[in-house]
Amino acid sequence: MNIWSALEPSQLINLSIIVPVIGAALLVFAGKRPNLRETVSIATAVILFTLVLGIADNTFNQVPMATTWVVLLSGLNIAFSVEPLGVLFALVASFLWIITTIYAIGYMRGHHEQNQTRFFCCFALAISTVMAICFSANLLTLFIFYELLTLSTYPLVTHAGNEEAKRGGRVYLGILLTTSIAFLLFAVLGTWVSAQTLEFTPGGVFNDVSSSGLIAVLLVLFCYGIGKAALMPFHRWLPAAMVAPTPVSALLHAVAVVKAGVFSILKIAIYIFGIDNLSEIATTDLMLYIGAATVLLSSFVATTKDNLKARLAYSTVSQLSYIVVGALLASSIAAAGATLHIVTHAFGKITLFFCAGAIMVATHKKNISEMVGLGHKMPLTMIAFAIGALSIIGLPPMAGTWSKWYLLVGALEQDKLIIVAVLTLSSLLNVAYLLPIPIKAFFTPAEPNQQPESWTETQHTPLPSLIAIAVTASACLLLFFFPQPIIDLINLIPGVSTEF
């Protein structure tokens, strides 16, 4: 029994969306009192995670959970309901909000960042919109909160306030709003015209009288309208957003924005089109191979980047398309792999970004070429980086092994040997652009007098940041040995299975 068991199921949904907003309001009142502000941030994050645990418990016990906020027209509501895919994303996002908040406390203080109250406030608002996306009952609700997520994270991207940050923010806002208005909005309208419903429905909403041509167009519109999934050529917003502080990069790449994008594509594939029906849509293979091309091209670009955050950004573009590919393979096993990749990539990539931020705070180094011998000065950070890198690559005993395994099995099941080749080559490219970083740090001699002999990691890296790094790196290992609770939740998703 959880501590929220006395609440009605609908109240759990409402609170999961409202609690971060209340936290944001309290942060405004905390103002310039750092200790109080940070206590409120952590407390709010912990409360949210316990709420989501309560929702997960009800899901395993098959307790129906739904609530309607606003009835606009007959069949058009702002409403929320709980299903296993949304629960999984909510668990990842709410747990990593706790860890990212702890990391951000150390980073923001250690880097002497300005406007920290605004930072934590926008962080909370962004998580509120993520919870609403997780539990959206229909496309209208998803669309509204998808847009609010873009707007709530814009101040985080432009946090530094300089010209570079403003330019990155313009690219961020411009691409995401343009794709959603030009493509996603029309995809939602087209779905309403064709299916007469926007409700997420197991097996999909289209019937025999729905136009196959329109459905084919809608799939393209959804894939490109959800710009947060970063399919090429609408991916530039993601590297542009790297001007933001590292905790924001972690939020963008592991917790909120990009995961909201690929989660939305997966949810639409499962509940609007239906996994079993995707193979019959004329444009499925087109978008599948565009996703595969994004996997490879962004990996090649990543190998050329010397700036660490830029390399990780293009790595994220590649890894997101693993999830898109898994959704479009029209295989229950591949869809399971894509769902699991949301989790494993989240922990692996957030570890890498945490390490990048710790390196920048401690040494003011941003370029990989400058990190020679750094492992001797920052052993804990660089060991964690190696663990996160191995998980992204998909090597045992790291969590990423399982998601890539299911994706490969799904591609083989569908006789998509090109996709098998793409996933294999991409993993080799992961090795090429990630492993040289810890190798350079540990096995290349440091430059003479690079730092005083008394220099130690704990003196120069804030303790909260090191704690956060240790937690996410440990999770990369633990999720390899104990993936079963997540797999059990994945197997509850209609049309998705790890059985083969």
TrEMBL record:
Domain NADH-Ubiquinone oxidoreductase (complex I) chain 5 N-terminal: 76-120
Protein keywords: Membrane, Transmembrane, Transmembrane helix
Segments forming domain NADH:quinone oxidoreductase/Mrp antiporter transmembrane: 136-428
Segments crossing the lipid bilayer: 12-30, 36-56, 63-80, 86-107, 119-146, 171-193, 213-231, 251-274, 286-302, 322-343, 350-366, 378-396, 417-443, 463-482
Source species, domain of life: Bacteria
Places the protein is found: Endomembrane system; Membrane
Gene Ontology CC terms: endomembrane system; membrane
Presence of the UniProt keyword Transmembrane helix in the record: yes
Lipid bilayer topology: Multi-pass membrane protein
Keyword ATP-binding in record: no
PANTHER family: NA(+)/H(+) ANTIPORTER SUBUNIT (PTHR43373), NA(+)_H(+) ANTIPORTER SUBUNIT A (PTHR43373:SF1)
Protein name as it appears in the record: Monovalent cation/H+ antiporter subunit D family protein
Native organism taxonomy: Bacteria, Pseudomonadati, Pseudomonadota, Gammaproteobacteria, Alteromonadales
